[in-house]
Amino acid sequence: MTQTKFESRILSILEDKIQLIKTKEGAIYLVGPIKLPVNLDGETVQFNWYCWLNCGEVTEDFDRIIDKLSSANLSELQQSSVLTYGDFSYSDDAIIRMHSICHTGDIFGSKRCDCGYQLKQSMKNIIEHGTGALFYLANHEGRGIGLFSKAMAYILQENNYDTVEANEALGFVDDSRNYSDAIHVLKALRSKPVTLLTNNPKKLEALKNAGLPVSGRESLWGDRSEFNEKYLETKVIRSGHIGEEETCCND
Fold it and tell me: Given 97, 112, 177, 190, which residue is catalytic?
């Protein structure tokens, strides 16, 4: 089999699963849906998984994009993805979670934060609701400062700096996360209103400023312990998160 025929066969399999989303800076290439059975508390739940790649080149020649990927060092880049559940594109009511990657909380189960809890609980909420999506944003580690910087920030936190003070002491702003790519993908997957699972008004503001129809907000507090109490308090006092006593289903 020649290389040309091999590429043609591969392209015929993949091209219907690749979607071009044009942006001001270039393009987002979205691949999926892919059936993803997930083990959630001992039960297997069927999600649909999509992954996206941000690229400066805008082309519908997906053969060209696939060929470029084989020579790129993609392992050094982080690509974000989204899990959808139920009839996400067309259901009248859906809930979504914009979840920032947390290496220590999501993978290791760290109790210094509530990220691991929020990840699993949002998936449970989506399943219980019947329709929704979990956006997993891979370039958001440490509110955008990256894993190595987050490790240094943790050392400062062990020396009586709070989360905001630690980030700022290292020369960063408190929160540099950007949701534009996720919003582009959300618009490509769904045009109907969504309810956002968050305690962070900045996420709600980002969706509304992008013109997305938002029907409400649901809070996601839990897993409070001696290890993360100061961290959670800082979220409310310093970072403007909506506290547990302020929660409501629409705001």
Answer: 177
Class of domain 3-140+177-246: alpha beta
**End-to-end Cα separation, the chain, in angstroms:** 60
**DSSP strands (E only) in 117-230:** 132-137, 194-197, 214-218
Catalytic site includes residue 87: no
pLDDT tens per residue across span 108-150 = 999 999 999 999 999 999 999 999 999 999 989 999 999 999 9
Give the global pTM: 0.89
Element housing 82 (H / E): strand 81-85
112 is catalytic: no
Identify which of 235, 181, 232, 189 has the alpha carbon closest to the alpha carbon of residue 210.
181
Residue whose pair of structure tokens reads 């039960």 in the numeric block: 43
Q: CB of 19 within 8 A of CB of 30?
A: yes
Q: Which of 175, 181, 190, 217 is catalytic?
A: 175
